[in-house]
Amino acid sequence: MYRPLHDGWTLRADGDPTATPATVPGSVHTDLLAAGLIDDPCRDGNETRLGWIGRTDWVYESAFDWHDDGHERTDLVCEGLDTVAVVRVNGHEVGATANMHRTYRFPVRDLLREGRNTLRVSFRAPYAYAEEQRERHGARPGAYDEPYPFIRKMACNFGWDWGPTLVTSGIWRPIGLHSWSGARLAEVRPLVRGDGVDVHVRVERAGDAPVTVTADVAGTRAEAKLAQGETRAVLRLDVPGAELWWPRGHGAQPLYPLTVRAGSDQWRREIGFRTVELDQDAFRLVVNGRPVFVRGFNWIPDDCFPARVTPQRLAERFTQAAETGANALRVWGGGVYESDAFYALADRMGLMVWQDFPFACSAYPEEEPFRSEVEAEARDNVTRLAGHPSLVLWCGNNENIEGHQHWDWRAPLGELSWGAGFYYDLLPRVVGELDPTRPYWSGSPYSGAPERDVRDPSTGTVHLWDVWNREDYTRYADHRPRFVAEFGFQGPPAYATLRAASSDEPLTPQSSPQKAVDGQAKLLRGLGDHLPAPETFDDWHYYTQLNQARAMAFGVERFRALMPYCMGTVVWQLNDCWPVTSWSAVDGAGRRKPLWYALRRAFADRLITRLDGEIVLVNDTDEEWAGALAVAALDLSGRARAQRSQDVAVPARATLRITPPDVRDAEVLTAELGGKRALFVLAEDTAVAYPPAAFTAGVERADGGLAVTVTATTVLRELALFPDRLDPAASVDDQLVTLLPGESVTFHVATERDLDPAALTAYPVLRCVNEPRT
């Protein structure tokens, strides 16, 4: 019997008698915000004024009624305490914690009393603990001058190049009492095969009586009897007729309820039958014997305060990923092991999950207490997540091996540990013991062996950050990687997101938080010769969003055209945790940036792109793509300078290269096959003599909003509609559409308001590159 203890909590600074109501699960920041004691940490630079919260000890207290329920045991189960805490029941210390990533269980039956009981969780200031450990073990080099490697806590709490420095404390996951008798299922670890599952079970007993353990799935049942003193069993269930679980775009995602019982205790979860292997040198994921090209996003915590992330919010974010054509999410190593709801949703939607262990961008100490904490959290979470078919890879860390090889760490480290023992020994050993059904990869980027250069693109994974940091995005064309696990280009959030987060009048580029070093200058430098220099905030907002979209579409299409040599492109990043200028496709308020629409085209199952002067047809489906390919070289009026039609057949899961017609006298190249058209402008926009944009536009009511139809009189380059400027709740179904003279497009705007048609079809709501400049 489980009883949540989420009501009646108060929060106070240790030593301060004044308490405020607290929400559990939650955090100090959100409680102080709800009480009106601090300003919104995500607005107007308030984060810099709230650093004291992470340097303060905090106390959560609650009282609850309890009456003897007849069970032999009662445990206090803490699914997430952030982070260094002492837990007391009725004034008695029952345990101490030092790891945000673990679940703790404390026996409290003998401390409970009839009637009123008290529960106190005292949190030590994260900074104080981490800095104390840093002093004890010696400072380590890293990307940021923050002590996050010295506390087992979400690293990005301490600030990142896209995230605020908001160092949290609190009861961030459920807490409650579990009463039981006889035996309980202390651990259930289903290791799935393509034709069955081996269920590893560990029981805890309140007495010595024999225990019968059963497991049922898909009409198959297995049973084991545990005699006195026995605590473990493996139940093998063969299901040869099971339907296989497939990644999105490769088949269906059938799930089967697995039920395990020990005495009166029961565990239940849906599992999927599938196999996953990793071709390590090529870094090619193979699911059910089939190589899968990974089209994915990196995932960061979706909120600065993870307790605010609901299953509904996850569903919205996952849908946004899936609707681009993505089939994978990489849970990045500076965050957390995500909630059960996260992985269950990925199971249902067919989104493969690459799970980093929580180590990122720093050298980490391997001494105690960290070694024991890391092993405990790894065992906890590998066991918790083992049954999810969506989880296809365990990865030891993010960029720490690269840091040791390339970021000048070795001299300041000297003989200090830096994490190698975790990535090459402890973590693969835990995964090998508890979850041998999945591959383990030591880190990313990584080339498959400690002695290999992690930046070698011919094997393993690479992170490409020469673009954005130094190079123009056309530099992607010079890369020939096996698998790109990170690459990105910045753009600001949606206008409505920025407007809600800033009190600036008027808005300026500096109104949007920018955490990347030299980020604003890189945004402008990145425009290069691609787009005009912005003269106003509105131009800055449109051009930098457009440039982000073009840069990432260029990279994704390049890497997909290299299939099957390259078998993965994972964009940095899907989401944001606050309203910031960043690399995300979906901003901190959940609004889709132009990048999202560009990636929907670049991630399409079937893609027409260009590579090294050739047209490339990419067919990532199980069916041949055949028909007449029409290619035309045009001028800006749409007149053909050269054209050709030829029959083509692109095999399933393959690419085909085509030499285009002569384009010397042309300004535009189009290629069309089976109703899919790609249009390429053959010079940079700043070098093209576009006519001033001319068009007609009409607005009509439509289901759920408005239909905006634009008909081009001249070429319209990268036509975009931004209805959130008129209604913050409004969204549009498409963006960045190039029209030739005489062509039309209809944008569908979802809105509950009557928007002014004149405003909806004029600057700065309706934009294109060649609009008249005043």
From TrEMBL:
InterPro entries: Beta-gal/glucu_dom_sf, Beta-mannosidase-like_N2, Beta-mannosidase_GH2, Galactose-bd-like_sf, GH, Glyco_hydro_2_cat, Ig-like_fold, Ig-like_GH2. It comes from the Bacteria. SUPFAM superfamilies: (Trans)glycosidases, beta-Galactosidase/glucuronidase domain, Galactose-binding domain-like. Coiled coil: none annotated. The keyword Hydrolase applies. It holds the Pfam family Glyco_hydro_2_N2. Residues 9-173 form the Beta-mannosidase-like galactose-binding domain. Its EC number is 3.2.1.25. Keywords: Glycosidase, Hydrolase, Signal. It is an enzyme of class 3 (hydrolase). Residues 197-274 form the Glycoside hydrolase family 2 immunoglobulin-like beta-sandwich domain. GO terms for molecular function: hydrolase activity. Residues 284-439 form the Glycoside hydrolase family 2 catalytic domain. It catalyses: Hydrolysis of terminal, non-reducing beta-D-mannose residues in beta-D-mannosides. Belongs to the glycosyl hydrolase 2 family. PANTHER family: BETA-MANNOSIDASE. This is beta-mannosidase. It comes from Nonomuraea purpurea.
